[in-house]
Amino acid sequence: MKPGFFALSLMAMLLGGPVQAETVIVTLEKDNALAVIDPVAGKLIKTIEVGQRPRGIALSPDNKVLYVATSDDNTVKIIDAESFQELGQLPSGDDPETFALSPAGDRLYVSNEDDYLVTVIDVINKQAIAEIKVGIEPEGIAVSYDNQWVVSASETTNMIHWIDVKSNSIVDNTLVDARPRAASFTQDNAQLWVTSEMAGTLMILDVASKQIIKKIKLDIPSVSADKIQPVGVVIDKERRWGYVAIGPANRVAVINAQTLEVEKFLLVGQRVWNLAFSADQKRLYTTNGRSNDVSIIDLENHKVMKSVAVGRFPWGIVSKP
Amino acid sequence: MKILLTKIVFFIVLGWIAINPVYAESPQIIKISYLTQQQKPPAALSNLDVFIQHKGLMGAKIAVDDNNTTGQFTAQKFELKTIIVPVEGDVIEQFQQQVSDDTALVITNLPAQQLKQIADLDVAKGKLFFDATTTDDDLRNNKCRNNILHMLPSRAMRADALAQYMMKKRWTKWFLVSGMTAEDRLYASAIKRAVGRFGIKLVAEKQWTHTYDARRTAQSDIPVFTQGIDYDVLVVADEQGLFGEYLEYRTWNPRPVVGTQGLVPSAWHKTHEQWGAVQIQNRFKTLAGRHMQEQDYGAYLAARAIGEAAVRTKSNQLTKIKAYLLGDEFALQGYKGKPLSFRAWNGQLRQPVLLAAARSLVAAAPVDGFLHPKSELDTLGFDQPESSCNQTVLEQITASPIVEQGTSQDVESRIQKLIQRLKNYYNSKWK
Fold first, then answer.
1. pLDDT-derived band at B423, boundaries 50, 70, 90
2. What is the mean pLDDT of chain B?
3. Could you tell me which of B145, B115, B356, B402 has the C-alpha nearest to residue B258?
4. What is the pTM of this model?
5. Burial of B319 (0-12, 13-18, 19+ CB in 10 A)
6. Touching check for B308 and chain A: CB below 8 Å?
7. Smallest CA–CA separation between A298 and chain B, in Å?
């Protein structure tokens, strides 16, 4: 780091001024570290050692605490979102990769891919309070905003399991396209969006009926079908736009969430994996696993503004206001 | 009292969960047979690799377990019947006796010749065979059958995978060494096909005729054998592994060894961990107590393909299952980063081919830059225009007795003649 820049950021930190208004935090799977980015300046601020093979990451509702799945340490670490000091660990079960936090931040739901389980963790008491048997190789997991449903996507069983939050048990299952990867609820809890890595589709499920109401085949002219492998998916608060990261196709699909049609594809870095909004939802951030950078997309114009080199294998991403 | 009450409520809830969800009606049964013959341990090159009896079976078992996990939620039950014919037994007889009329789906771990004989039986017409083990190109071309699907990459696919990577490295001067078995000859032909296809130079070609007990003589034989030739890589065709391992580090010039030994193109390898593969590798190791072999992978994919088709079509009927397997919607997850599907022109499963060294995965083909208008996976092996399979695999199975020639008999026979001429050419060059 240049000394000038260091002095500047030190000054900014001391003044607590507007420069640090927002930070984006990225897990670096191969560097065993977190990267901290200033998305407005489009600069990497620092990287911090965190543990073996960090992947999933979430921010507590009060923005004070980060949860990071360090897969090869078989734990989810609790990290102070300001100082990046480790505060503790959660008993996640083996090889945690993806997890979801309840809206209140009191429960953490972890996919245990090798044991076909979803582990429910009481965050306050740092205890596993339930294990729910799901299909083979559970991966994508999400909690509805009204805290009614936890959904778990099992990659080999090809199902979305609907877990009732109160009873911690499966009450329904929806068969979806091959190798479902990620799932996200719309803010109004009416829809669940699910990506299928192998079929190259985005499926929109109706939460009330648990049925697929629309299937969008993501075809990109000039990209061969076997490279269309959708992974991360997010939908904005107004349900105006949804965005899908399409892995090795190196693109993000912009979906009109009203008409459920693909509006356009934005070229980002290589093997785009996970997505996160800025707090004001004016920007979208992508982790590009193979080109080792984060793309910053301006959502007012749907244009890629910048890419920031972060380190090896960026995986998970959160934005802290 | 309160505790007791909670307990009672708990058990009521538990009971409700156990009986309620989807298992209310009796499940649909999907019957699968697995047919194989016991193998005599072949002559071993060294005692490092323990002979594995029943390669393949464990793959089928794990996949059927996976299917049944899904089946719990879809009210389907997959039943696997294992038929292991003893070394001296008659496979055809056992097939006729043991594979029942109501079992249409048969996974086989049999050599090409036996599989062909079985598939041609009258009782086999209404069945679909999942060949989990052969790599035979003829069985996918002029000797193809419309009731066989092939799970493992053919020799041609393997050779093409190797050629693509060698092209990328610009190691394009090849010295081919082959053994004396019929299989080695077929592997060598596949290599030579790739040579022609990718514009590689075959600078030398030799047959290994030395003794196989090379432990004593390798150090002196191999330098002499490889001396005086200017080449980039030594390509070895030794499917049984009788001498190939001895080539590396003993050649006259320092050159890498590729082919059946050294850098090996294969469907599956213990070093493969990408694209979720580590999950299935670990699951397999836990259950089988050993690494997953190619045949296990082939049988795994076969049973998983059946599971996918049965779950998606909600059916145990062969016509529906076969139509789904060969249709556009079928996308099988095979832990190799790309969806797998069947080539409708010869029943071959489209798939990436791994290029692995003993302890590291070097590359996965198709290699970037080898393009194809439909699927880059079809840059490997016999593409539709090259195929001499004259049977549309997606024919109505019951209504179609196997015919040796298609309607355009003239064209077909001309192609056959052409292939024969090519073969003669290669064979003559061989001798």
1. low
2. 86
3. B356
4. 0.80
5. middle
6. yes
7. 30
